[in-house]
Amino acid sequence: MWKEYDNGVEIGRKIELRDGTYLESEDWHKQWRRYGTDGVTMIDQRTVAGFVWHTDTFGRVSLAGRETNFTGALADFRGFNRTWKEANIWQWGASIDGASTVKPFAYRAGRQLLVEFVQEWILDFTMNLAVYGIVAAATGTPFTVTDVAKAAFGATISAGVKGTFSAGHLAAYRGGPWRTGLGQVDEGNPYNRRPNDKNWGDEWGGNEKVLRWRMGSYDFGVGLTSSVVAGFVGGAATAAVFGVKDKDGNTVKLHGTDALLAGAIGAAGGAIAGVSTGLGRTLLTNNLGGRWFHRGGFLDTIAIGATGKLIDKTFYQLFLMKDLTVSIGPGYYTHPVDGSNGGTTA
């Protein structure tokens, strides 16, 4: 039959079994497929997650078993979450003439972006609601449907900016040569080594490697940059759509340079929050992730992610943005609104 090599190392093959059927397998993600005596009709297949599916004579597909250990629902959540967010996985797609093809990179990248966007949007929207509720209680103002709309609007901008940065990485040599290379060096591998050999048992659903300082520093820098951009876009857009409060508590809808100034204040707030509460949270989670909790698991993605956002956003909304606005003193804030300072009362 045939064998497949990568840098002189055998990584895949198709062999004839004693019963006349054929087995195709690969070593990176442990996928395999068994074909009938014609070498083309697929009978069984093992997926990345270890599930074995059987196809009978009538084309009906059923679950035959699983080759990976089930260690709990949270472990499976982590495994699928990390697998779906890995664009460089060589996941098999269709079988053509008895040889498996790899799912297109556009599909894998699109899946990663979709999962990241949905998770980020849900977390951001939920924490925005919580913070707006805290602010309303602290300032004695009512919590209205406008706050809900602002929470959804802000979450869309935040998740969209983060997704744009992720898409940029995926467009640059399928994941960014800098981030991927630094991650390989962190694991003791050559900078240009291909990052394609992870599998469910030793990484995605198992005990993953801890994050080291090179890729951790790079991720922090990218996260800080995306926070600044999201702060600018979100600040300007929110000021134009929903308005901001002046010193007398009036809501002012901004446009033109005043809206851009509000965006600049938002960007400054994002930068300050990033190097203060954001840096502290990053140092804590990056050092504990892979040691005390699993990276990409429920605790990391949902619980710690939500708690971190709640702390950052509360600090941002209750203290940081107010102090920045007062210290900068833009015209729309310092003067009573009469429609002459680039804004209109809402």
Features:
single chain; about 350 residues; alpha+beta; 2 domains; seven-stranded antiparallel beta sheet; three-stranded antiparallel beta sheet; 10 helices; 12 strands; about 55% helix
Describe the fold and architecture:
The chain contains 10 helices and 12 strands. The chain has 2 domains: 2-103; 106-175 and 210-345, no CATH class. Helix 7 packs across helix 8 (277-288) and helix 7 (257-275) packs across helix 9 (298-328). The strands form 3 sheets. It has a 7-stranded antiparallel beta sheet with strand order 1-2-3-4-5-6-7, with no helix packed on it. A 3-stranded antiparallel beta sheet has the order 10-11-12. The chain is 53% helix and 16% strand. The mean pLDDT is 91. The protein is of the alpha+beta class and 346 residues long. The N and C termini lie far apart (74 Å). It is elongated, with a radius of gyration of 25 Å.
